[in-house]
User: What shape does this take?
Amino acid sequence: MEEGHDVRLDLKLDTLVQKPDPEPHIVLDTERCLMCQERPCTIVCPAGLYVWVDGAMTHNCDGCLECGSCRVVCPHGAIEWRYPRGGHGVRYRWG
Amino acid sequence: MSDHVHDCIVVGAGPAGSAAALQMARDGLDVVLLERGNRPGEKNVMSGVLITDTLSDLIPDFADQAPLERRITNTHTTHYLTDDAAVSLPTLRDYRAHLEEPPIFTVFRSEFDAWFAEQAVKAGAELFTATLVEDLLWEDGRVSGVHTVRGDLRARVVIGADGVNSTVAETSGLRTRPTPAEVSLIAREVLDLPASVIEDRFVLRPDEGVLNLFIGRVCGPEGRQGVYYTELYTNRDSLSLTSEVPVDVLQACGVPAYEVLAARERHPYIARLIEGSTLREYQAHLIPWGGVESLDELYGDGVLLAGDAGKFTTQDGVGSWPAMASGKAAARTVEHALETRDVSRDSLSSYLGFLGDEGLIETRRQAREHWAMQLKRRRALAQRPEQIVAIARRYFTDWRGAADDDARSLWGQAYVDLIEPTAPWYLRLPLGLAAWVDTLRWRIGRRS
Assistant: This one.
């Protein structure tokens, strides 16, 4: 099956309640990202928050589902990852 | 927070943490339960069903109090999928009133975990929500407490029940971060559908539910592939559709989890099962369903790991029951260590014995074997759905036209499709002979 159909991820993410942590809980060493050929974070992030734009990695902490996939796959240790502070981040109502 | 030394700090108010806290609080220990969400369950995603073996041990009348959705009445109904077909394997729907096994339920963790933690609190545990553990405290080379934004807390033993990305496991040095092959990513959609439609569509009475497992192939560019598991569960007035794919498979196939899920939604069979539903919530969660490591990593000086933090899952990826069982075993271990006034790693190794009592050592062994097999035969397993559909098509639809002389009996065809490509020679030899004889007899019977 062709897996590459357009998925309206924005509509899926719109169903979520979030309380963003003003202090970003994921810090990216974008210098290291420049060396990265595979960029697995752009594939595995279930919220599509890692985007390769014009030769640089961009990332947005808001909308994070806190699964930790990105830190598991990052081959260059470029992702400094922790959970948002207590009470912040995603709030699943139907988890 | 003060200099007071608690008996135990449990990090994470999920099924493992709350089970541990409940057990210890009942036995009179001074227990603190910490949860990073505003409410227990807020950060969790149920990717399967709740198996209630340990829950019914801990709270025999849980079915009267707990927020449950539907009681599962079927065995795992397995469907093999290709793009345009589904082969459904036989299933048992068991309606006996008094089943010997404890029942299985669909639940929402946002409701269930809150209720379960409340039981621990009622038993005397102290719960702090919205409290993230950022680091561990150490004293004489052993873990002596936790550091949170709200202050430091001290305890004789710390139980890490803080999930697959366990801060306790990684900062205590018991484990490093998992590799992509050791974890699977759950993507899940909760789909609104009226209860009456669910009951008609799945042939259910109001409190009954079913679960369906779909197995198919994840395809990426350049022929890269792997197996995916999709599950569809009935809640009271919603369906849960999940996909569970090992992270290294997502990575190798180059396909995001939400696209795997979207492809499943478009499958003609699943599309009909979820027709008319609307998306209530989209979720993702990582589970330790993958390679299983040694038992050494489960305990250290003043620290134990339970639930997903200790990578307790069955070979089928069931995590909530092993979580509760390991929480209970961890509680017993702490009680034993406090009685003997020794919380060293040596003393806490009694955890293995208590885990054994809960059947978890055996569960872990089975899971390890399962994953060793999966990793070795990933390519062959990815072919399986297509092979099974091909056999079913041949046998159930093409047999009328099977006048050609090469047609084989069911067994003969199954041998060629399934056994010959993967089995070792010493199995191929006798089974091949049996398949050949069976086909011969079948052809003779067809002619006469």
Q: What stands out?
A: Chain B touches chain A through 60 residues (CB under 8 Å). DSSP finds 16 helices and 19 strands in chain B. Residues 314 and 364 of chain B are 7 Å apart (CA to CA).
